[in-house]
Amino acid sequence: MTSTLPTSIPDSQLGLSHSEIQILRQHQPIALQNQGYAHSTASTRGRGHARTSASTSRAASAASSGNGRLVLDPGSLAVLGQHFERLMAAIQNRVEQLTAQTQISTINQSSRAGSAMAAADAEIARFHAILRQIDELETEFDKVRHIRDIVKGFRARVEGLERKMDSRGSRR
Known about the structure:
Blueprint: E1 8-10, H1 18-34, H2 37-45, H3 49-64, E2 69-71, H4 74-111, H5 117-171
Helix pairs in contact: 1-3, 1-4, 1-5, 2-3, 4-5
């Protein structure tokens, strides 16, 4: 009797908050559709293109169907992990841009300390808006990091199970 690995699991069983599940559901189909997933999986797994295309198509279809499941094959987990890495980098870049803008705003505000009160109030309001954006982005960054870590864990577990199954199959 051969045990088969599940191809996906409910995303509600990943230990994520509701908002993190929403991010995962939003980004899983994007990652699978925007990535050269079939090419990268075929080249890293050493399998033929036809087999990979079929599994890729199924993975992308499952992810985009909105059925609330995380696809568990190593290729799609790798693509999803890479997508979240890029997303975190983009968020980090935006935080850095906003930080630089905050510094500029602070410098501008201090140099105009003697100017009219209305101009100072406008800079303060801008400064507060930037700080709110930074807080929101840092919260999103933490959520995405948590999702990425869970995806990495699942990927490692799935690859380990694949290796075990491959080694059991080669012994027979």
